[in-house]
Amino acid sequence: MGTSNSVAVVTGSARGIGQGIAQRLGADGHHVIVADLPSMQDGVNETVAAIEKAGGKATGAEVDVTDEESLSRLVEVAVDAGGKLDVFVANAGIAQVEPLIDYSKADFEKIVDVNLTGVFLSYRAAAKQMIEQGNGGKIIGAASIVAFRPFALLSPYSATKWAVRGLTQGAAMEWAKHGITVNAYGPGIVGTAMWDLIDEKLAAEEGLAKGEAIKKYAGDILMGRVSVPEDVANLLSFLASEDSDYITGQTMLVDGGMQFS
Ligand code: NAD
Protein backbone atom coordinates (compact mmCIF):
# COMPACT_ATOMS: atom_id res chain seq x y z
CA MET A 1 0.00 0.00 0.00
CA GLY A 2 2.70 2.55 1.01
CA THR A 3 1.72 5.98 2.23
CA SER A 4 2.80 7.94 -0.85
CA ASN A 5 -0.46 7.47 -2.76
CA SER A 6 -2.60 6.40 0.17
CA VAL A 7 -5.94 8.07 0.85
CA ALA A 8 -6.89 8.43 4.52
CA VAL A 9 -10.18 9.67 5.99
CA VAL A 10 -10.21 11.12 9.51
CA THR A 11 -13.61 11.93 11.04
CA GLY A 12 -13.90 14.61 13.73
CA SER A 13 -10.71 16.25 12.51
CA ALA A 14 -11.73 19.92 12.76
CA ARG A 15 -10.04 20.08 16.15
CA GLY A 16 -8.44 18.14 18.97
CA ILE A 17 -7.09 14.61 18.56
CA GLY A 18 -8.57 14.22 15.07
CA GLN A 19 -6.83 17.39 13.91
CA GLY A 20 -3.54 16.06 15.29
CA ILE A 21 -4.03 12.71 13.56
CA ALA A 22 -4.95 14.36 10.25
CA GLN A 23 -1.86 16.58 10.35
CA ARG A 24 0.41 13.63 11.14
CA LEU A 25 -1.06 11.43 8.39
CA GLY A 26 -0.66 14.37 5.99
CA ALA A 27 3.00 14.70 6.99
CA ASP A 28 3.40 10.93 6.49
CA GLY A 29 2.30 11.32 2.86
CA HIS A 30 -1.35 10.23 2.95
CA HIS A 31 -3.86 12.35 1.07
CA VAL A 32 -6.06 13.20 4.05
CA ILE A 33 -9.81 13.70 3.86
CA VAL A 34 -10.49 16.03 6.78
CA ALA A 35 -14.11 15.41 7.78
CA ASP A 36 -16.34 16.91 10.44
CA LEU A 37 -19.88 18.19 11.02
CA PRO A 38 -21.19 20.98 8.75
CA SER A 39 -21.01 23.37 11.73
CA MET A 40 -17.27 22.62 12.12
CA GLN A 41 -16.11 23.57 8.63
CA ASP A 42 -13.96 26.50 9.86
CA GLY A 43 -11.93 23.97 11.81
CA VAL A 44 -11.88 21.62 8.82
CA ASN A 45 -10.46 24.43 6.67
CA GLU A 46 -7.88 25.16 9.36
CA THR A 47 -6.74 21.51 9.41
CA VAL A 48 -6.59 21.36 5.59
CA ALA A 49 -4.55 24.58 5.49
CA ALA A 50 -2.11 23.26 8.13
CA ILE A 51 -1.56 20.03 6.16
CA GLU A 52 -1.05 21.91 2.88
CA LYS A 53 1.30 24.42 4.53
CA ALA A 54 3.45 21.48 5.65
CA GLY A 55 3.58 20.25 2.04
CA GLY A 56 0.88 17.56 2.34
CA LYS A 57 -2.34 16.85 0.48
CA ALA A 58 -5.76 17.34 2.06
CA THR A 59 -9.41 17.69 1.09
CA GLY A 60 -12.09 19.04 3.43
CA ALA A 61 -15.46 17.30 3.77
CA GLU A 62 -18.68 17.36 5.72
CA VAL A 63 -19.89 14.30 7.61
CA ASP A 64 -22.27 13.32 10.35
CA VAL A 65 -21.14 9.87 11.47
CA THR A 66 -24.61 9.01 12.76
CA ASP A 67 -25.97 9.22 9.20
CA GLU A 68 -25.33 6.30 6.79
CA GLU A 69 -25.81 8.40 3.65
CA SER A 70 -23.48 11.08 4.90
CA LEU A 71 -20.81 8.40 5.40
CA SER A 72 -21.39 6.98 1.89
CA ARG A 73 -20.89 10.48 0.50
CA LEU A 74 -17.69 10.84 2.53
CA VAL A 75 -16.29 7.63 1.03
CA GLU A 76 -17.19 9.03 -2.42
CA VAL A 77 -15.27 12.23 -1.61
CA ALA A 78 -12.22 10.12 -0.77
CA VAL A 79 -12.49 8.08 -3.97
CA ASP A 80 -13.04 11.23 -6.07
CA ALA A 81 -10.02 12.90 -4.44
CA GLY A 82 -7.54 10.04 -4.58
CA GLY A 83 -9.11 7.23 -6.62
CA LYS A 84 -9.49 4.87 -3.64
CA LEU A 85 -9.73 4.53 0.13
CA ASP A 86 -6.82 3.03 2.11
CA VAL A 87 -7.25 4.22 5.69
CA PHE A 88 -10.35 5.21 7.65
CA VAL A 89 -9.99 6.69 11.14
CA ALA A 90 -13.34 6.75 12.99
CA ASN A 91 -12.26 9.39 15.48
CA ALA A 92 -15.45 11.46 15.96
CA GLY A 93 -16.89 11.24 19.45
CA ILE A 94 -18.73 13.12 22.17
CA ALA A 95 -18.60 13.02 25.97
CA GLN A 96 -21.06 13.83 28.69
CA VAL A 97 -20.29 14.02 32.39
CA GLU A 98 -23.30 13.10 34.50
CA PRO A 99 -24.07 10.92 37.51
CA LEU A 100 -25.61 7.70 36.15
CA ILE A 101 -28.70 8.19 38.32
CA ASP A 102 -29.46 11.48 36.52
CA TYR A 103 -28.61 10.30 33.02
CA SER A 104 -31.62 10.61 30.70
CA LYS A 105 -32.53 7.94 28.13
CA ALA A 106 -32.28 10.56 25.39
CA ASP A 107 -28.74 11.49 26.43
CA PHE A 108 -27.77 7.82 26.70
CA GLU A 109 -29.07 7.19 23.18
CA LYS A 110 -27.25 10.26 21.88
CA ILE A 111 -23.86 9.14 23.16
CA VAL A 112 -24.40 5.62 21.82
CA ASP A 113 -25.47 7.09 18.49
CA VAL A 114 -22.23 9.05 17.97
CA ASN A 115 -19.62 6.96 19.80
CA LEU A 116 -20.80 3.45 18.95
CA THR A 117 -23.31 3.53 16.08
CA GLY A 118 -21.12 6.19 14.43
CA VAL A 119 -18.08 3.90 14.65
CA PHE A 120 -20.08 0.90 13.37
CA LEU A 121 -21.39 2.91 10.39
CA SER A 122 -17.90 4.28 9.71
CA TYR A 123 -16.29 0.81 9.86
CA ARG A 124 -18.97 -0.63 7.58
CA ALA A 125 -18.80 2.18 5.00
CA ALA A 126 -14.99 1.92 4.91
CA ALA A 127 -14.95 -1.89 4.67
CA LYS A 128 -17.49 -1.95 1.82
CA GLN A 129 -15.25 0.29 -0.26
CA MET A 130 -12.04 -1.54 0.70
CA ILE A 131 -13.51 -4.99 -0.04
CA GLU A 132 -14.72 -3.74 -3.44
CA GLN A 133 -11.24 -2.40 -4.19
CA GLY A 134 -9.72 -5.76 -3.19
CA ASN A 135 -6.48 -4.30 -1.94
CA GLY A 136 -6.84 -4.46 1.86
CA GLY A 137 -6.90 -1.41 4.07
CA LYS A 138 -6.63 -0.01 7.59
CA ILE A 139 -9.69 0.73 9.69
CA ILE A 140 -9.05 2.43 13.02
CA GLY A 141 -11.53 3.51 15.70
CA ALA A 142 -11.53 5.73 18.78
CA ALA A 143 -11.77 3.92 22.10
CA SER A 144 -10.39 5.29 25.38
CA ILE A 145 -8.64 4.47 28.64
CA VAL A 146 -12.18 4.16 30.02
CA ALA A 147 -12.62 1.03 27.90
CA PHE A 148 -10.14 -0.55 30.38
CA ARG A 149 -10.74 1.13 33.74
CA PRO A 150 -13.60 3.14 35.25
CA PHE A 151 -13.68 6.91 35.51
CA ALA A 152 -16.20 8.82 37.59
CA LEU A 153 -19.35 10.21 35.97
CA LEU A 154 -18.52 8.86 32.52
CA SER A 155 -20.29 5.47 32.63
CA PRO A 156 -22.34 5.70 29.40
CA TYR A 157 -19.33 7.16 27.57
CA SER A 158 -17.23 4.36 29.01
CA ALA A 159 -19.79 1.77 27.86
CA THR A 160 -19.55 3.04 24.28
CA LYS A 161 -15.76 2.80 24.34
CA TRP A 162 -15.85 -0.78 25.74
CA ALA A 163 -18.25 -1.59 22.91
CA VAL A 164 -15.82 -0.14 20.35
CA ARG A 165 -13.23 -2.66 21.63
CA GLY A 166 -15.66 -5.51 20.98
CA LEU A 167 -16.74 -4.20 17.61
CA THR A 168 -13.10 -3.81 16.61
CA GLN A 169 -12.33 -7.44 17.50
CA GLY A 170 -15.34 -8.76 15.58
CA ALA A 171 -14.68 -6.60 12.52
CA ALA A 172 -11.02 -7.72 12.54
CA MET A 173 -12.12 -11.37 12.47
CA GLU A 174 -14.58 -10.84 9.62
CA TRP A 175 -12.41 -8.67 7.37
CA ALA A 176 -8.97 -10.25 7.80
CA LYS A 177 -9.64 -12.42 4.75
CA HIS A 178 -9.85 -9.21 2.72
CA GLY A 179 -6.48 -8.01 4.00
CA ILE A 180 -8.12 -5.35 6.14
CA THR A 181 -6.78 -4.73 9.64
CA VAL A 182 -9.08 -3.20 12.24
CA ASN A 183 -7.64 -1.65 15.38
CA ALA A 184 -8.64 0.98 17.94
CA TYR A 185 -6.72 3.50 20.03
CA GLY A 186 -7.30 4.37 23.65
CA PRO A 187 -6.04 7.79 24.69
CA GLY A 188 -5.75 8.64 28.38
CA ILE A 189 -6.29 12.33 29.11
CA VAL A 190 -5.62 14.59 26.14
CA GLY A 191 -5.84 18.33 26.67
CA THR A 192 -8.60 19.04 24.12
CA ALA A 193 -11.96 20.85 24.21
CA MET A 194 -13.53 17.51 25.19
CA TRP A 195 -11.26 17.14 28.20
CA ASP A 196 -11.86 20.79 29.25
CA LEU A 197 -15.58 20.02 29.33
CA ILE A 198 -15.07 16.83 31.36
CA ASP A 199 -12.72 18.57 33.77
CA GLU A 200 -15.06 21.54 34.28
CA LYS A 201 -18.12 19.36 34.90
CA LEU A 202 -16.26 16.96 37.19
CA ALA A 203 -14.89 19.87 39.21
CA ALA A 204 -18.35 21.41 39.52
CA GLU A 205 -20.02 18.11 40.53
CA GLU A 206 -17.35 17.35 43.11
CA GLY A 207 -16.69 20.88 44.37
CA LEU A 208 -13.07 20.72 43.22
CA ALA A 209 -10.87 23.43 41.76
CA LYS A 210 -10.28 23.27 37.99
CA GLY A 211 -7.53 20.77 37.23
CA GLU A 212 -7.95 18.89 40.53
CA ALA A 213 -10.36 16.40 39.02
CA ILE A 214 -7.48 15.02 37.00
CA LYS A 215 -5.49 14.36 40.15
CA LYS A 216 -8.43 12.79 41.94
CA TYR A 217 -9.62 10.52 39.15
CA ALA A 218 -6.60 9.92 36.95
CA GLY A 219 -4.21 9.39 39.84
CA ASP A 220 -0.57 9.90 39.03
CA ILE A 221 -0.14 9.36 35.31
CA LEU A 222 3.07 7.32 35.18
CA MET A 223 4.64 9.51 32.51
CA GLY A 224 3.96 12.56 34.67
CA ARG A 225 1.87 14.63 32.29
CA VAL A 226 -1.44 14.88 30.48
CA SER A 227 -1.05 14.01 26.81
CA VAL A 228 -1.27 16.08 23.64
CA PRO A 229 -2.85 15.08 20.29
CA GLU A 230 0.65 14.38 18.88
CA ASP A 231 1.07 11.49 21.35
CA VAL A 232 -2.01 9.82 19.87
CA ALA A 233 -1.01 10.78 16.32
CA ASN A 234 2.31 8.93 16.75
CA LEU A 235 0.38 5.68 17.33
CA LEU A 236 -1.97 6.43 14.44
CA SER A 237 0.97 6.98 12.11
CA PHE A 238 2.00 3.39 12.86
CA LEU A 239 -1.51 1.89 12.71
CA ALA A 240 -2.11 3.56 9.33
CA SER A 241 1.16 2.23 7.90
CA GLU A 242 2.35 -1.12 6.55
CA ASP A 243 4.45 -1.50 9.70
CA SER A 244 1.28 -2.57 11.52
CA ASP A 245 0.20 -5.14 8.91
CA TYR A 246 0.42 -8.05 11.36
CA ILE A 247 -1.62 -6.33 14.08
CA THR A 248 -5.40 -6.57 14.08
CA GLY A 249 -8.31 -6.57 16.52
CA GLN A 250 -6.32 -4.61 19.11
CA THR A 251 -7.25 -1.61 21.20
CA MET A 252 -3.96 0.07 21.98
CA LEU A 253 -3.66 2.42 24.91
CA VAL A 254 -1.67 5.60 24.53
CA ASP A 255 -2.24 6.79 28.08
CA GLY A 256 1.15 7.50 29.64
CA GLY A 257 0.58 4.50 31.93
CA MET A 258 -2.70 5.87 33.33
CA GLN A 259 -4.07 2.31 33.27
CA PHE A 260 -1.81 1.53 36.21
CA SER A 261 -2.26 4.74 38.19
P1 NAD B 1 -13.17 16.99 20.58
O1 NAD B 1 -14.51 17.22 21.16
O2 NAD B 1 -12.13 18.03 20.74
O3 NAD B 1 -13.31 16.65 19.01
C1 NAD B 1 -14.26 15.71 18.57
C2 NAD B 1 -14.63 16.07 17.14
O4 NAD B 1 -15.66 15.13 16.71
C3 NAD B 1 -15.20 17.47 16.99
O5 NAD B 1 -14.55 18.17 15.96
C4 NAD B 1 -16.67 17.22 16.69
O6 NAD B 1 -17.27 18.22 15.86
C5 NAD B 1 -16.62 15.87 15.99
N1 NAD B 1 -17.94 15.21 16.02
C6 NAD B 1 -18.78 15.08 17.06
N2 NAD B 1 -19.92 14.46 16.67
C7 NAD B 1 -19.77 14.20 15.34
C8 NAD B 1 -20.60 13.59 14.36
N3 NAD B 1 -21.83 13.13 14.68
N4 NAD B 1 -20.14 13.47 13.10
C9 NAD B 1 -18.90 13.94 12.77
N5 NAD B 1 -18.07 14.54 13.65
C10 NAD B 1 -18.52 14.67 14.92
O7 NAD B 1 -12.68 15.58 21.18
P2 NAD B 1 -11.21 14.92 21.25
O8 NAD B 1 -10.74 15.06 22.63
O9 NAD B 1 -10.39 15.38 20.11
O10 NAD B 1 -11.62 13.38 21.05
C11 NAD B 1 -11.47 12.67 19.82
C12 NAD B 1 -11.78 11.19 20.07
O11 NAD B 1 -10.90 10.69 21.08
C13 NAD B 1 -13.21 10.98 20.60
O12 NAD B 1 -13.75 9.78 20.07
C14 NAD B 1 -12.99 10.84 22.10
O13 NAD B 1 -14.03 10.11 22.72
C15 NAD B 1 -11.66 10.13 22.15
N6 NAD B 1 -10.93 10.32 23.42
C16 NAD B 1 -10.60 11.57 23.89
C17 NAD B 1 -9.91 11.69 25.10
C18 NAD B 1 -9.50 13.00 25.68
O14 NAD B 1 -8.98 13.04 26.81
N7 NAD B 1 -9.67 14.13 25.01
C19 NAD B 1 -9.56 10.53 25.81
C20 NAD B 1 -9.91 9.28 25.30
C21 NAD B 1 -10.59 9.18 24.11
UniProtKB/TrEMBL annotation:
Keywords: Oxidoreductase
Chain segments annotated as transmembrane: none
Gene3D superfamilies per record: NAD(P)-binding Rossmann-like Domain
GO molecular function, one term: (S,S)-butanediol dehydrogenase activity
Domain of life per record: Bacteria
Matches recorded under InterPro entries: NAD(P)-bd_dom_sf (IPR036291), Sc_DH/Rdtase_CS (IPR020904), SDR_fam (IPR002347)
PROSITE patterns: ADH_SHORT
EC number(s) per entry: 1.1.1.-, 1.1.1.304, 1.1.1.76
Pfam families listed in its UniProt record: adh_short_C2
Similarity annotation: Belongs to the short-chain dehydrogenases/reductases (SDR) family.
Protein name as it appears in the record: Meso-butanediol dehydrogenase/(S,S)-butanediol dehydrogenase/diacetyl reductase
